[in-house]
Structure formats: structure tokens, C-alpha cells
Description:
Distance between the termini of chain A: 66 Å
Strand order of the largest sheet of chain A: 4-14-13-12-11-10-6-5
Number of strands of chain A: 16
Radius of gyration of chain A: 21 Å
CATH superfamily of the largest domain in chain A: Queuine tRNA-ribosyltransferase-like
Number of helices of chain A: 15
Largest sheet of chain A: 8 strands, parallel
Structural class of chain A: alpha/beta
CATH class of the largest domain in chain A: Alpha Beta
Oligomer: homodimer
Largest interface: A-B, 43 and 43 residues
Number of domains of chain A: 2
CATH topology of the largest domain in chain A: TIM Barrel
Amino acid sequence: MPEFRFELMAVDGAARRGRLHTAWGVIDTPTFMPVGTAATVKAMTFEMVRQTGAQIVLGNTYHLMLRPGAERIARLGGLRRFMGWDGPILTDSGGFQVMSLAARRKLDEKGVVFSSHIDGSRHELTPERSIEIQHLLDATITMQLDECIRLPSERHETERAMELSLRWAERSKQAFQPRQGYGLFGIVQGGTDLELRARSAKGLAAIGFDGYAVGGLAVGEPQALMFETLEGTCPHLPTTHPRYLMGVGKPADMAGAVLRGIDMFDCVMPTRSGRTAQAFTKRGPLNMRNARHADDPRPLDPEADCPATRDYSRAYLHHLVKSEEILGATLLSWNNVWYYQEVMRGLRQAIEDGRSQQFVADMLASEAAGDIPPLPIQKDAR
Amino acid sequence: MPEFRFELMAVDGAARRGRLHTAWGVIDTPTFMPVGTAATVKAMTFEMVRQTGAQIVLGNTYHLMLRPGAERIARLGGLRRFMGWDGPILTDSGGFQVMSLAARRKLDEKGVVFSSHIDGSRHELTPERSIEIQHLLDATITMQLDECIRLPSERHETERAMELSLRWAERSKQAFQPRQGYGLFGIVQGGTDLELRARSAKGLAAIGFDGYAVGGLAVGEPQALMFETLEGTCPHLPTTHPRYLMGVGKPADMAGAVLRGIDMFDCVMPTRSGRTAQAFTKRGPLNMRNARHADDPRPLDPEADCPATRDYSRAYLHHLVKSEEILGATLLSWNNVWYYQEVMRGLRQAIEDGRSQQFVADMLASEAAGDIPPLPIQKDAR
Lengths: 382, 382
């Protein structure tokens, strides 16, 4: 079984091209991790997920602890086996979704008590229980429990949550059972306050983790503020370990974050958008509900190597969306996850070639230029 | 381009093993045709459909004429190309669904005028227009327009509808443009009145079609009555042409119909059931919502060659269904269509081997014996 180890292969400015070795496979970074909330990347088979080039997927501790339950998944051989994904997985700590989804939350030094959004049942999540659940899920990468607050917040509130998250980081580290090829990540908090971010990063580095996440962003703040926060945070993180920006984002957000030193991403956007008729393409996002596509025999991108992107006409995708057919959600999610991986493939190559700035500029220009012009509408065949 | 031609390879009692040659591929009979109502076999990709062994799929004229429109599909290269299915397709005439789905219907000698269930728009369907629409869809097998009445009905009403269907059969034949490798099927009506069925069958044979369907069954009547009607109908149909029992059914219905001389079937049951947690298996139908599956690591059938049937635990399928995840509908639909094809494969082999009666008896016994016993529930890992 390989060691859990980050191999830094190339740097280009602050951008990094690496390889994360884990018990269950290698992850080329920068990487995008599709989100498999309830043990499924919504509307896709794992064969489709694999075909996009994804090397790791994410599972949500909050959802899985409530249904079907962590102990049950453990008895069934862990989350990878349960859902039939043969690569590494990362699970979040559950903290973020307790804050956004659960009812009747009560947070204190010990942890958080909450009611399930499914059946109202009471549950407790402490740093120790979160680590235990992720162990039961057999997560290749485990995340510490942290407190994620809203932006903007008062500085004293941001500082309190950051300090609490640091103490929870220490308890998470203590609770984590090291296994070869498995890793534990700490999470930097501190809102958009660079001094707090720096203290958080240094505090985590002093404890020592296998990777470092930047949490508390992608909660509605402007992109420039997110980038600024990354610029003030990444330099305080060890260069020897992977850096993960949680919950981000749009392709332009991810590309900009890579230029600032981030290695890993996750986001529900490609799959959620896939269920609401949005297709991500190199020419920007398209609304497949739009009538302009109704008679268009062209695929989203004839040069793509994703079947969903290459083999179906826009007219067919439009029809599926309008008819609310499940296959529409499947094909658009597949296309979107593929496009996200395509962006990552491009970034990795560009960093190796020392032209990451140019790649991102070209990508933004291509997305901004917009879609191919519509075809002239043919006369009715009758 | 091959001729449209039915090759009768073996008979075993009334059961027939054949091959239907068409412009777009060969169909081994007995065959089950998955239903692709709105240009998609619901919740499945066509790659999955193909993997089950399906050789032909069905499209619904009523749905497609309303959305996205037959002329539009024609401009886009026909239904096969539109939806990305490389085999032959059969389209129904639209008549049955006008009767079951449309609002404000008015039927007379000329045809039927109705309102769309989608937007209330008025449409007309005549025998000629139905044939034209199916031509625009580029259906490999076109069905005549018929009038399908409820069971039971008064004899004079059944006779009136049967006679009208015969006159519409004649008009459909006139309207159909013969093309090499393409075929037109007539539809036998007459309710459960064997004298009317015989007159209908003979009338159609006198007009001359490329295949003969039995319509007006599978509308809620007992299985025994359906079988009796088939026994009174099939002997009046040419042995040289394929016979298609429309809208049937459960595996046991299909198997019994094959023993009575039917070659082709279609039904929404495998896909509709797949979206409502039902799994068809050789041990009978299973309700995957049932808590007995929650901890069961076993697949639906470890010996199956369908990934959905073989590679996922019952526990995972149960979880997906309970969580209302799209993948649950996909995997169960895939399993169900595969099982239907497996029944057809078994029937074909059994007819060749002269043991079709025994095969059906064994199949019914296996389905009736019920599911494997549950595993003893393990103790909680904690």
C-alpha cells in the first residue's frame, strides 16, 4: 500500500502541478472532485464519472450519517465499495452542512447538536465523532470538523470561530487513526481577515496535517475578495502539502485559485446545473432550455471526448430538458463534470509548460466570447 | 439495404423463433421492445439499452408529434438519429395515447381531433396523418391508426370500432410509402369477441401487411381472457409474418403469449417500475423500498451480465430509492429491461430446443418461489 504523499512536479508562479499518492490511487493536481453527496454523483453512473477523468470523488458526512448511516456503510465495506467507486474518496466533516441544512442547531465548545432535515431526529457531531464517522466511511482523505461562519461577520466572531476551529483541529488530529495511504486535512478559517487567516494557517501547520483546506469561502463573496484571501493565505501553508479550496466553484474561480496556489476543488455546480438545464462549455455556460437550440443539430462540442458533449445534438438536449426527461439531467451533468475535468487537464499541462497565466487568460477569453452563432432556421419539411 | 422480411427459424407448438430483417438491423424474435416514449427510454442511456440485448426500441407518435414535433425530427435526420439509437425503431400510430392522454377528443370516420395534454393546442390525427408523421420520424416499422376501445364494451360498439379500424387499415396502407427494409403493420381489434377478432385478422390479411399486431388487450382484463383471445386470433394470422402483442406486459404475460404464437412485445412496465422502486428478477418482482434490503450486501443477481443487476448491492439500491436519487431509477430500469431481454433470450433458446412449455413452467415456478432469504442482520460495528 503506497504512502499518503504529495509530489510537487512543477511550479509556475504560484501555480503548482502535483501528484497526490493515496492508498486507492493517484490524484493528479490541480484536481476537481465531483460531489457524491448521498453516495452518488447525482444523475450519473460512476462509469460516467470515471470517463470524465475524475480521479477522486467527495462524499458528504452529514447526509451519509443520517442516511443510510455510517455504521451501516462500514458493515457494507465502506463508502467506496458501497457506491462502487474504485478510486480514492474525500469526505467532508459534516460541519458545513449541519450549519446550512440541519434544524435546531446548538453549537458549543464540545461540538454541535442538531436535528435531521429528513426526520427531525437529534444527532451530535463533535470533532471526535466526525473523525469516527469518516473512519467508518473509510474515507481516503478525512476532513477535520470546523465552524464555518457567514460572510461578512464581525471580526471578533470570525476570530472566535477560527480559534474554535483550531482547537477542533487539534482534537481531530488526536482522534484520527493513521493508516497507510490515508490522510487528514486541517481547515483554515478566518473569513476575509488576512491576519486571522495567517494565524489559522500557521496554527494548523504547527499541529501538522497531510493537507490543508481553505474553508469559509465560496459563500457568496465577490471573486476578487476570494482571490485576495487566497493570496493572503496560501503563502502561510507548507509548500510540501496539498491545498484544497472547499466548495469552489465556477471554472473561472478555480482557474484563478490555481494561479494563487490551490491544488484541489469540489463543487456541486456541474451536477446541480446539469439538473437545471445549464451546460458548461469552453464558450461559456449555455441554457439548454433556450429555444435557440430547438433546431440545432450540432453537439455542444464536436471535438470533445465526452459522449454527452460530442454525440448528442443541442436539439436533443433541448428536447430532453423541455420534456423533463431524466436523461437530460444525466447528459448535462456528464458534460459539465467532463468540462470541469477538461479545465483541470488544461491547467496541469499549462503549469508543466510554464504558461498557466496565458492558459487562464485564453480560457476566460474563450468563455467570454460566447457561443457559436445559431444556424439559419430551415424551412419546414412539409 | 436488406428487404423487410420475417424468417421463421423454428416452431415449438404455437411458439415461434424467428428473425425479422429490416433496413437498420436484425431483430431476433420473440423480442421485447423497450419503450422510448419521448425519444428516450426513461432514465437510461441508449448504451445501457443496447447492453441489455434490445435490438429495437419503440417511440410514441402522440408524444413526439406534440413535442418536439414530427417535422422538426425529420429536419434533424429522423428519430433514430435524433435520439442516437443505431438499430431499428417501431412507432405506434398515436391512436392509443390520444384516447388515454389527450383532452377534448372527437372521433369520426375521418380521424380524431384532440387537445394536447401539454399546452391544450388542437391537433388532428387521421390514418393518413399518422402514417405521414411516422414517415417523418423515419420509423422502421409503422403502425396503422386504429381505434382502441375499453374492455368490456357492448358487442355492437366493439364491432363498430373494429370495422372502423379495418377501414383505417386500408387508408393507412394506401398512405404508406414503401421503402426497402421498412414495414407497415396492421392491428387486429375486436375486444375479447373471437368472431370479431377472426374477421379483423382476415380483413387485415386480405389488405396485406408486413406484420400484424394484436391491439386492444392489456387494458386491465384478466390474463386468462387475454390468452383465450390470442388463441382465437393467432390462428387467423399469416404464419409468414411477425405478430406483435401491443402493450404487454409482465414476464408471465409475455411468456404465455409466446406459447400462443406472439413474436413481439412492448411495455412501459420495466422502466416505469424502475422509477417506482420495483426490480424484476428471476425470483419475482422485488420492492427495493422494503427495509429488508437495507443491510443486504448481495446484488440482485450475481450471475447476471447486466452491471446494474450484478455490481450493486441491494443495500445500495435500497439507499438510492429511499434517497430519491436519479441513479436508483437508472439502475432499476436497466436491471428491469435487462431481465425482460433475458426472458426473451431464454424463450428463443427454448423454442429452438423444443422445450418452450418447460421453460415457461420453470420460469413461472422460479418467479413464484420468491426471493432469496434475508441474511441474518450483523451486529452494529460500534
